[in-house]
């Protein structure tokens, strides 16, 4: 089975963010970057699927500047066989443009499965995976929290509001991966050494004209500082009074 | 003058609240664009047409009713094709809710139309030659204003960011055929595994009572459920620590990697307030925190904090809330 996994390099989500001088991006000074959380689940699912389905190939693909090579090496140190960087120098917030670049690369790859994270932390948009599937003309299941592949078909569970949706689909397909499906493995020392010798190709990303651009970024308004109104059960009457009279939510 | 096409989301025979929010947002966008019409696409099983009046009440000028037995469950490919096909008639924007369905549909429609898309919109900033919108990125830590250039754009709006506003129109109803046969879907819904009956969804509940590790064990979530029941309009959430432990289902997780919510009232019980959790609830209107550690970070953002033993305080609060509700 031939599997692609599309990943993204994003800043550590625990960081404190500042807006950069141009106000159209975050200030990257001091930020730690790594493989996006959901992308790391997608890599794990890709590797496990490949292990279960017998020897095949897992290809990691990313759109990004040269520092994304580090992220692609990480995917290879986890077990991906090779990697492709689609080079784009600035972060792209046009999800459809990213999907076009990925689809242009993936369309000739004869992949049985293409995995994505359900969204990436920075853009938080849930666009690229689904749009790529649409451009490739293959079925797409978004936000899968469980996945089984057997006999050229997949079954998946998706979390929808207040329920789980069980779906069945034929391969080839695109599946975007939710949290909780698999715990991403740590690269072993052997894996890290092996990754250095694996093939990492770089090609220009065929993004086309960008029609969604960042006009500005700003930090959201701070909440007013918190206040402690009392201790123990004795504070309950005052709490209820505030909820009724001040917050008007009771 | 520019018309706006909006996807009026339903499940089975029921309209979802996010449909009214999306229609409200569509009305605002049409007005900003010089007073165009709002056309709402209502796809569902036979009988869904009964919901058209409700869409008119919230600002739809035309309700496009697309009834088919195949729409009893979410038919992603057929709905996306129908929405895209209709959008080709010439709309300034296609609006959807950023719900489980909407976030699945939006990129499909955008790719079919080759239209720029922005999702998870919390504010429509301006609508001229370009449309600018505000969208929270970086787990709600940075607001991003995006400019979209294109004759038609696709936008999905965050649930609860737009409060449904009545704006009654005398809407016309037109019936529409599905642009692709729902029976030919490649991705087929085999089963819907319902959560507890009558349970409010976290994205829609005006009140959320959420529990963390401070509850000390899964059995004490009974206290959280009792408090939610006393409110009557509350859903129960949990922290990642708790869902990772298996105390609560994964779908209940509120936080950066779980659900992002902004209810009228959020009650955090036994939750210390890790950044990962705050990212999922910091936009709640009013926050109450109950925790034994006065230094817990949750108290830095709680409008009302109570320090102490949750097992002692929560039952008292439940009784008091029940009493207060009775007084109404």
Protein architecture, described:
The complex is a heterodimer of chains A (250) and B (328). In chain A, a hairpin with a 2-residue loop joins strand 7 and strand 8. Chain A is built from 6 helices and 13 strands. The model of chain A has no long low-confidence stretch (mean pLDDT 96). Chain A is 27% helix and 32% strand. In chain A, helix 3 packs across helix 4. Chain A is globular. Chain A has one domain: HUPs (Rossmann fold, 3-Layer(aba) Sandwich). Chain B starts with a strand and ends with a helix. In chain B, the strands form 4 sheets. Chain B has a 7-stranded parallel beta sheet with strand order 7-11-6-1-4-5-12, sandwiched between helices. Chain B has a 5-stranded parallel beta sheet with strand order 15-14-16-17-18. Chain B is α/β, with parallel strands linked by helices and 328 residues long. Chain B is built from 9 helices and 18 strands. Helix content of chain B is 28%, strand content 28%. Chains A and B meet through helix 3, helix 4, strand 7, strand 8 and strand 9 of A and helix 3, helix 4, strand 7, strand 9 and strand 10 of B. Strand 13 of chain A pairs parallel with strand 18 of chain B, so a sheet runs across the interface.
């Amino acid at each position: 089975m031939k599997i692609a996994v599309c990943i993204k390099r994003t800043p550590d989500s625990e960081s404190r963010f500042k807006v950069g001088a141009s106000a159209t991006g975050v200030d990257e000074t001091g930020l730690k970057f790594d493989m996006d959380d959901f992308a790391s689940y997608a890599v794990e699912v890709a590797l496990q699927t490949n292990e279960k389905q017998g020897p095949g190939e897992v290809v990691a693909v990313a759109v990004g500047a040269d520092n994304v090579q580090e992220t692609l090496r990480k995917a290879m140190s986890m077990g991906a066989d090779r990697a492709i960087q689609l080079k784009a120098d600035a972060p792209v917030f046009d999800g459809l443009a990213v999907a076009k670049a990925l689809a242009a690369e993936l369309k000739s790859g004869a992949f049985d499965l293409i995995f994505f994270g359900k969204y990436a932390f920075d853009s938080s948009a849930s666009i690229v995976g689904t749009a790529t599937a649409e451009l490739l003309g293959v079925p797409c299941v978004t936000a899968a929290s469980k996945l089984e592949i057997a006999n050229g078909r997949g079954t998946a569970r998706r979390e929808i509001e207040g329920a789980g949706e069980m779906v069945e689909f034929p391969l080839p397909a695109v599946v975007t991966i939710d949290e909780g499906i698999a715990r991403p493995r740590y690269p072993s020392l052997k894996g890290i050494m092996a990754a250095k010798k694996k093939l990492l190709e770089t090609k220009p990303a065929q993004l086309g004209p960008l029609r969604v651009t960042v006009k500005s970024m700003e930090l959201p308004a701070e909440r007013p500082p918190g206040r402690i109104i009392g201790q123990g059960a004795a504070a309950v009457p005052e709490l209820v009074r505030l909820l009724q009279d001040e917050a008007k939510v009771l | 003058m520019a018309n706006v096409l909006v996807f009026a989301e339903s499940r089975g025979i029921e309209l979802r609240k996010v449909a009214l929010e999306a229609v409200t947002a569509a009305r605002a966008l049409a007005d900003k664009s010089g007073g165009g019409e709002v056309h709402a696409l209502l796809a569902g099983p036979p009988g869904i047409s009964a919901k058209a009046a409700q869409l008119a009440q919230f600002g739809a000028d035309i309700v496009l009713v697309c009834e088919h037995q195949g729409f009893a469950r979410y038919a992603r490919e057929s709905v996306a094709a129908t929405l895209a096909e209709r959008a080709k008639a010439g709309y300034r924007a296609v609006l959807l809710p950023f719900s489980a369905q909407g976030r699945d549909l939006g990129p499909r429609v955008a790719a079919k139309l080759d239209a720029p898309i922005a999702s998870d919109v919390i504010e429509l900033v301006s609508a001229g030659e370009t449309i600018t919108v505000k969208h929270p990125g970086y787990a709600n830590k940075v607001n991003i204003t995006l400019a979209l250039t294109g004759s038609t754009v696709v936008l999905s709006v965050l649930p609860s960011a737009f409060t449904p506003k009545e704006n009654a129109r005398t809407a016309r109803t037109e019936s529409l055929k599905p642009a692709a046969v729902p029976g030919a879907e490649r991705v087929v819904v085999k089963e819907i595994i319902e959560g507890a009956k009558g349970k409010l969804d976290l994205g829609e509940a005006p009140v959320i009572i959420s529990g963390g590790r401070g509850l000390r064990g899964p059995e004490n979530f009974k206290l959280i459920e009792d408090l939610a029941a006393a409110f009557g309009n509350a859903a129960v959430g949990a922290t990642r620590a708790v869902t990772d432990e298996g105390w609560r289902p994964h779908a209940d997780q509120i936080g950066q990697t779980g659900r992002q919510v902004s209810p009228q009232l959020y009650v955090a019980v036994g939750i210390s307030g890790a950044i990962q959790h705050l990212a999922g609830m910091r936009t709640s209107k009013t926050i109450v925190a109950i925790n034994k550690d006065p230094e817990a970070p949750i108290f830095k953002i709680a409008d009302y904090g109570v320090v102490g033993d949750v097992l002692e305080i929560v039952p008292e609060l439940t009784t008091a809330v029940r009493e207060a509700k009775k007084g109404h």
